[in-house]
Design goal:
heterodimer, A: about 250 residues, alpha/beta, Rossmann fold, 6-stranded mixed sheet, 4-stranded antiparallel sheet, globular, B: about 500 residues, MetI-like fold, 23 helices
Chain lengths: ~250, ~500
């Protein structure tokens, strides 16, 4: 049975005459944990933006559940969740309102309205905020009043609450101290919470700079100048591979 | 030789040069026939008439003014929000609607707001006669378009990354739109929407001068009969109304997290929309349109109006706008800079308040007591009234600014005036000029008012054409007016975007 969730076929992306992605072919299969490595400016963020449909490639095809991304419906597209490097939270909303935004896809307009008026239930949001080790005192604080690490965890909570199958994350461990990195890494990659009940995105592609975090991944992709240099099992990774991309 | 270097500070003062030709014409036009009247007018300010009869009149007239002002504000702010959303790019991006409609609705709103409420009022009065609701409709029409511009501008500042983030969640489109625009709308309402009530009241007063009712009508009648004591009673009561409305709104805190308050606002929002539609239907079916046949000839093309006459009037209107804008930009920083002490500041603030308070047609009539009608006099009137408004903004910004640079410069032994100029004003000059660019749009529209009162430009021609029911001429004047205002808005938009 074909278990490919996302597929890039011969993808290129040009921006102002610069080739940012160059003929990328990539398959993301169900259950895979993929680390995406590369220097700053190598095209990692653009690749993630193409994968989640934010950027339309100049050339090539993106397939989601074996269907063209363009033809996929809203429900299918909502199976992908993204943690952006720049977080992209709504600064004027509170932390809990931002986390609740992750539920917009599965709810109607009235839910969005109640969320903005602060009269919706925040039970589920609070649960995910607790998992991300966010203190209750910041739940109703506006995003702009939070520290970098707190914002990072709000973005992660918003992403997790979506209950998506596929996680795309761009440097999700920035701004976090070592203890929090372990907690968040477990949340994002281990698929179960401490009560062993809730499944988190089973499939993940995470852009990374910290090589010491690679142990939790099955596969590693190396990207340089918009080209994939290697796409291998993590156990096969060696110094030569890294020299090619750094 | 050193070249003159222009920066934002010098650009704020340069327009005062308009005073050279303006002053020359004013001096040559001076007459001494009305000095006594002017003196009487000034003295009456300290001795307004207070008796039972006038107090009852004031209460009744203020009631009318408040009702027209409040309802036109409510309708224009709600529909302004809706049109603001419809004319912002975020709406078209989320719903994937072709850009053609975005430009179409923007152009339509630009045309609507290019015509001043007084012109709308006069036109509507010609069709429907004088009635209470005409005031509300006349103010609401251009105000909806003005408010929608401000709301749309704010919505276009939404971070594109926030949009991408919400879009990526794949929420229903209306949910995405609401989540993104909610806070910019609330903030614009708090910062701009409440101030518009004061503007609505002012516009009601001006429309009152043209017979729509309210305190404006009383002001005009008392001026015509030279009852200056009555006039000042009305002006001071209007001042109290404006100050009180400002204070009340300052005290009210719009807490959107309060459940009951939120439900109340939402109820008001939908009831206003419903009521407006019902009233519109009632208005259509309960008015005889006897006069509409004559007005419909607005759209016929033949006219005796000469091209040369039209060009002359257009040129006069443009010069009038430029001269007034020059005064409105440069006079406040110049006066505040020269008279830079606490006592002077209090007097400047009172004078600026009076300039804002007294409607432009009344200022013009006062100035006519010692000067012949001319383009310069109209420009001075409009310039002074708007200088009252720009000075309020300048004072507010200067007072909220950090004074570190000013103190540091003074401690170096630099004079107080120079320290003020370089340590305080220079940091405000850019944003001040950006606001003045927006203000000059309004000045262009306001040339209609001073023109109508009998001085110069297209406003005067409009009044003449309306009085003689020359509808083809009215249509030509309106098109010319709109064109000037639209071109002015485009130029000012460019200036403003280069300054912000």
């Amino acid at each position: 049975m074909n278990n490919t969730l996302l597929e890039l076929k011969n993808i290129s992306y040009k921006y102002k005459n610069n080739l940012i992605l160059n003929k990328i072919n990539l398959k993301i299969n169900s259950g895979e944990k993929i680390a995406l490595l590369g220097k700053s400016g190598s095209g990692k963020t653009t690749l993630i933006s193409v994968l989640n449909g934010t950027i339309k490639p100049t050339q090539g095809e993106v397939k989601l559940f074996n269907k063209s991304f363009e033809e996929s419906d809203r429900k299918q597209k909502s199976k992908i969740t993204t943690i952006w490097q720049d977080l992209r939270l709504i600064e004027d909303l509170s932390a809990e309102q931002n986390v609740n935004c992750g539920l917009l896809a599965e709810n109607n307009f009235y839910f969005a309205f109640k969320n903005l008026l602060n009269i919706s239930s925040f039970k589920k949001a609070h649960k995910y905020m607790q998992l991300c080790r966010l203190h209750y005192s910041i739940y109703d604080k506006k995003i702009r009043k939070l520290s970098g690490g707190q914002k990072q965890r709000v973005a992660i909570a918003r992403s997790l609450i979506q209950g998506s199958n596929i996680l795309l994350a761009d440097e999700p461990f920035n701004n976090l101290d070592p203890k929090l990195i372990t907690t968040i890494k477990n949340l994002l990659l281990e698929n179960v919470d401490k009560n062993n009940t809730k499944k988190y995105p089973k499939t993940a592609l995470v852009a990374l700079h910290k090589l010491d975090l690679l142990n939790d991944f099955d596969k590693v992709i190396g990207i340089r100048d918009g080209k994939i240099f290697f796409n291998i099992k993590r156990t096969n990774l060696n110094k030569l591979h890294l020299d090619k991309i750094y | 030789m050193n070249k003159l270097k222009l920066n934002y500070t010098s650009l704020s003062f340069l327009p005062i040069l308009v005073c050279i030709p303006l002053g020359y014409q004013l001096i040559t036009n001076i007459h001494f026939g009305g000095f006594k009247l002017f003196q009487e007018f000034l003295i009456s300010a300290f001795n307004p008439k207070i008796d039972n009869e006038i107090i009852i009149t004031v209460i009744n007239r203020l009631n009318e003014t408040i009702l027209i002002g409040f309802f036109s504000w409510l309708v224009s702010i709600i529909f302004g929000t809706i049109f603001g959303i419809l004319s912002s790019n975020i709406f078209y991006i989320i719903f994937n609607i072709p850009n053609f409609f975005y430009h179409l609705i923007r152009f339509f709103l630009t045309v609507v707001r290019s015509i001043h409420e007084v012109v709308w009022g006069i036109l509507l009065m010609q069709i429907y006669g004088i009635n209470f609701s005409i005031g509300i409709i006349a103010i609401s029409i251009p105000y909806i378009a003005v408010n929608s511009k401000v709301f749309a501008e704010q919505l276009e500042t939404i971070d594109h990354k926030s949009f991408e983030s919400i879009n990526e969640i794949n929420a229903p489109k209306f949910s995405s739109l609401l989540t993104l625009i909610w806070n910019p709308i609330i903030n614009t309402f708090k910062n701009f929407g409440l101030y518009r009530l004061e503007c609505s009241i002012r516009s009601t007063v001006i429309l009152g001068l043209f017979g729509i009712g309210g305190i404006g009508t009383s002001i005009f009648l008392s001026f015509q009969t030279l009852n200056f004591r009555d006039l000042w009673t009305y002006l001071w009561s209007l001042a109290i109304l404006i100050i009180l409305s400002g204070l009340i709104f300052k005290k009210i805190k719009f807490n959107t997290t309060n459940k009951i308050l939120s439900i109340f606002f939402i109820a008001v929002f939908f009831i206003t929309i419903l009521f407006s539609f019902l009233y519109f239907l009632y208005f259509i079916f309960n008015n005889n349109f006897d006069n509409f046949n004559s007005v419909s000839s607005l759209f016929k093309t033949s006219s005796d109006f000469g091209l040369f006459d039209l060009l002359k009037l257009i040129l006069e209107t443009i010069i009038l706008s430029l001269l007034s804008t020059g005064i409105a930009i440069s006079l406040p920083p110049l006066v505040i800079g020269i008279f830079n002490n606490k006592t002077s500041k209090i007097f400047i603030k009172i004078f600026a308040f009076l300039l804002r308070l007294i409607p432009t047609p009344v200022i013009l009539l006062i100035l006519l007591t010692f000067n012949n009608p001319s383009l310069s006099l109209a420009a001075l009137t409009l310039g002074l009234h708007n200088a009252g408004i720009t000075s309020k903004l300048l004072f507010t910004n200067l007072e909220s600014q950090n004074r570190r640079n000013y103190i540091a410069m003074k401690s170096l032994g630099i004079s107080k005036k120079t320290s003020w100029l370089l340590g305080l004003f220079s940091q405000q000059a850019k944003s001040y000029l950006a606001y003045c660019a927006y203000r000059s749009d309004i000045i262009t529209r306001e040339t209609a008012i001073v023109g109508v009162i009998g001085s110069v430009g297209l406003g005067w021609q409009l009044q003449e054409s309306l009085s003689s029911f020359a509808w083809q001429e009215v249509s030509i004047v309106l098109i010319a007016y709109s064109s000037i205002a639209i071109v002015g808005e485009l130029i000012n938009g460019k200036i403003k975007s280069s300054l912000t």
